[in-house]
Amino acid sequence: MADQVEKVIIIGSGPAGWTAAIYAARANLTPLVIEGAVTEKNRQMGTTPLGQLALTTEVENFPGFPSGDTRQYLKTSLPEELQPYWVSANKPQPTHGINGPELMELMRQQAKNFGTRVITDDVVKVDFKKKPFEMVTLGGQTLQALTVIIATGARANYLGLPSEDKFKNRGVSACAVCDGALPRFRNKPLVVIGGGDSAIEEASYLSKFATEVAMVVRRDVFRASKIMQDRAKSNPKIKVRWNSAVEEVLGNDKDGVTAVRIKDTKAGKTEDYVASGMFCAIGHTPNTHFLDGQLELNEKGYVKWTTPARTFTSIDGDFASGDVADDYYRQAITAAGTGCMAALDAERYLGHHGLI
Ligand code: NDP
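A: This is the predicted complex of the input protein with NDP.
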């Protein structure tokens, strides 16, 4: 049993989770954030603490960060003993503004400054039929709360090929920033799959290490924004393969990935492209597995907001914010915005029910 009933538990530690925490803490709700566990499984799935932004490079579109010296704060924002486990510990030095891991560290610090408590663990089971709501963590803790804010985000998709699975961690990845600088990827050709902003971001980052980056795009157009498209087109190391699909990842036990079989679907030709790595950037899946069907999801599997312009879910007292409930905007700033909304919704719910 839990020792105490929390007013607000926030599950997740991306921009939605920390913004919800900042607002809930400033409303004297002393929120508890379950930020995720530092495990190999989470590393592989891309569900480590601090969310997807911890896996990115520069953030150019988060209002308020055109430039500025945030370095001083960053020296103290994470507990020293945990720093080696965070991707951000190996982050590249920014050339301007702020990068994803830094933005998350500062949001975390900001939430803590107002009294947010943080548990570095995963929620693996929930019981939302009970009131107070009950949650069990991977570490075996049972927690209770009057309100819950789900802010667990979404994780990167893979193609689903058996050969891709076989070479995960040995050349197949969905995170260039986490893995791109490894020796196996240096001075060799690499493959990036996808035509969205993420794919171009990954390809641009990898082009610093690779001899060439082949972007495998399934249509004859990018989905990415204009500015990112221009970035890909002006990078001499990025070669786009339009109308193409990866059929198989080739390799062996000793070397890992050695080549990628790419099919030109228009010409009907197949090529074994010699490469030491393949990076998937083909969209995301919301992290809702631990909910075990207790909250209503939309047709794409994202938590359903049941009332327009509110963060309400199908269960009274449970709120959702960020990418776990948003398959459309999926930006750091929109996640932060709905995190704020969820905290205000939780506060109003508690007030309305005479619980604060
Ligand atoms: P997107 O959904 O925007 O793009 C996914 C890409 O992968 C598309 O090109 C899609 O092709 C392709 N794809 C999907 N499934 C497959 C498959 N099975 N095989 C091959 N290709 C596939 O996802 P992103 O992760 O790129 O971006 C998500 C959101 O985050 C967007 O809103 C984006 O703007 C934002 N973002 C912004 C960044 C920035 O501003 N710096 C950086 C990164 C992300 P198709 O087009 O044919 O569907």
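DSSP finds nine helices and 19 strands in the chain. The first helix runs from residue 15 to 26.
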